[in-house]
Amino acid sequence: MIQLHGIVKTYQMDQIQVQALRNISCHIEKGEMVAIMGPSGCGKSTLMNILGCLDTPTSGHYSLDGVEVAMLSDSQLAEVRNKKIGFVFQKFNLLPRTSAVDNVRLPLLYGSDGNNGRKRALEALERVGLGQRAGHKPNQLSGGEQQRVAIARALVNNPSIILADEPTGNLDSRSSRDIMGLLSQLNRDDRITIVLVTHDAEVGSQAQRIISLRDGQIIGDSPVQNRKDGGI
Amino acid sequence: MKATHVVRTAGTGLTTNKMRSTLTVLGVVIGVASVIALLSIGRGTQVAITSNIQSMGTNLLFVGPGAVSQSGVRSAAGSAATLTMDDAAAIADSTAAPAVYAVAPQVQAGAQIVAGNQNTRTQVIGVTPEYSWVRNFPIERGDFVSASQVQRASLVVVLGNSVAQTLFGLQDPVGQPIRINGLQYEVIGVLKSKGGSGFGNSDDQVIAPITTVQRRLSNQRTTSGAKTVQQISIQVAGASQNEAAIQQVTAILQERHRIAPGQPDDFTVQSQQDMVQALQQSTSVFVIFLGAIAGISLLVGGIGIMNIMLVSVTERTREIGIRKSVGARRQDILLQFLVESATLSLLGGGIGILLGWGISRMIGGIRLNNATINTVMSLDILVLAVSVSAAIGLIFGLYPAYRAARLSPIDALRYE
Ligand SMILES: Nc1ncnc2c1ncn2[C@@H]1O[C@H](COP(=O)(O)OP(=O)(O)OP(=O)(O)O)[C@@H](O)[C@H]1O
Ligand SMILES: [Mg+2]
């Protein structure tokens, strides 16, 4: 469902050019759970942002469900971000001074079906185990809880893909296990395609497949041998 | 996005940042209120001056003495004593000046007026009976100066309203004696108050027969020894005949004063319209000045709004990034900020109108050494103030949002 071909991303900084991605090509099928790993600065976040239609590649082709993303208009891209993709950031990126349930509801406001929005937002919060925290503002939640709110927001619109950029990067091992359990469950039970970035080998081993990146290039792409199933 | 969601989103945007919203509204309020108050003072002053001139009468020309040139040295206008009663009579002659309807010559002199143990210093104006209606001075009590009193140079006076109050208080002055320069006069009437303010308060004067003033109070003579008049007020037969009347009066006086063609006149003819125009021109400087102050306060209000918006732009850019990353389109963002800014501007504009109106009503009528502050409220002032401040609010509120909405979601999220 995700097809990348010859993706290049170059950042222009005054005089120097930074090549964050050089010639990335790969396929990710529906229902897969893929971990992207690699040293800091190798271009993992850059790749995720392109996959999430938050950023555009300098060159190369990205097709999502057979549609060439570069051909989409601003509004069509907004619709893809709204309906097809749920994005989980390392830094949570929740609206401050806004309750958990209203944060989760946000994607529904920009979709077409916002009638029973509050109910659906509460259901999503239940699924991540935060039904009791619906009225809490982000600054009244722990890091792990904030990340779970972010996951609830990502899945509230029933996306076919969830992209998570270091979802456990800011969390302790217990919260990490909770989050990973949640993502594995979504992948297993709801057949949601999951792509996640991590530094943590143990987190990576819960995926079915690991793509290794270095200096903006793929240096390895292999299935996980003895996969640990991250059940709760 | 549904309309209810747009309103809700904008509403929460405003209420989650109460301080920012309040300060923005305050900026608009101050701008609108000061523009309204200042412009209403400017407008009120113009209206007061115009109505002051209009209260002199209608369709008037004023003839006054001009500058004489003696051996090439020109003295100031009005300094010469060139107009006489005969000049006035010649202008009144309807065959030579058909456009002239009525003529009212006058002389005046300052004098100390004493009544009992009260006294005041004011102008005594010598007039003929025509003065009453040409210059629009109706009588409140008693009578105006009559033709026979002018003929006999009787010792009678008509008191201006405030003079009557100063000298007699609540007592009826008609029939009472007063003294001017040691001579006793009888009060025969009191003028209606014009409520005049500022220049030439017409309530503070005393009217007497022109012949009396010429004989007793003013000894100005022309070079040939005739008694002078200081001003001749002329009522024109109709507004359309203004130009004709000026020409006829000028021709009569040039002939009588033997002014050779090409020589400067020793008199001046000025129409009431010219005076209104001249005064409006000079007051428009004042109005522009007030407008400039008002504009500055609007600008300061606008800079305040912009400052608040810029301070919050980092946070709001991140907010826009978050919204875009979950599917907000460019127009959703712009609409939200448009509704937010419009709400703040309208709220500020509404409060500003009420405040400005209140201020203008409060200071209207205040007296500052003899001059009254006049204020006039009109729709165009309100429209101007509100539209300018609304524009400032919208521009300064929308511009940062417009810039942020065009960023890619990731650039908006990374914005620092
Ligand atoms: N906006 C930008 N402007 C210029 N250079 C950038 C920008 N964003 C990223 N880079 C550069 O691109 C390279 C890849 O960055 P990226 O954020 O994708 O790394 P990463 O693999 O996610 O690292 P980490 O594991 O630390 O998050 C880095 O060298 C970084 O300096
Ligand atoms: Mg990264």
Q: Nutshell version of this structure?
A:
Chain A has 7 helices and 10 strands. With 232 residues, chain A is α/β, with parallel strands linked by helices. In chain A, strand 9 (209-214) and strand 10 form a beta hairpin.
Could you walk me through the main structural features you see in this protein, from its secondary elements to its overall organization?
The complex is a heterodimer of chains A (about 230) and B (about 425). Chain A is α/β, with parallel strands linked by helices and about 230 residues long. Helices cover about 30% and strands about 30% of the residues of chain A. Chain A has helices at about 45-50, 75-85, 100-110, 115-125, 145-155, 175-190, 200-205, and strands at about 1-15, 15-30, 35, 60-65, 65-70, 85-90, 160-165, 195, 210-215, 215-225. In chain A, the strands form two sheets. Chain A has a six-stranded mixed β-sheet, with helices on both faces. In chain A, strands 2-1-4-5 form a four-stranded antiparallel β-sheet, with helices on one face. The longest helix of chain A is centred in the last third of the chain and has 17 residues, at about 175-190. The mean pLDDT of chain A is about 90. In chain B, a hairpin with a 2-residue loop joins β4 (about 100-115) and β5 (about 120-125). Chain B has helices at about 5-15, 20-55, 85-90, 130-135, 145-150, 160-170, 210-215, 240-255, 270-310, 315-325, 330-365, 380-405, 410-415, and strands at about 60-65, 70, 75, 100-115, 120-125, 140, 155-160, 175-180, 185-190, 205-210, 230-235, 265-270, 365-370, 370. Chain B is elongated, with a radius of gyration of 33 Å. The interface between A and B is medium-sized, with 29 and 27 residues. The complex binds adenosine-5'-triphosphate and magnesium ion (MG). Magnesium ion binds near residues 44, 45 and 165 of chain A.
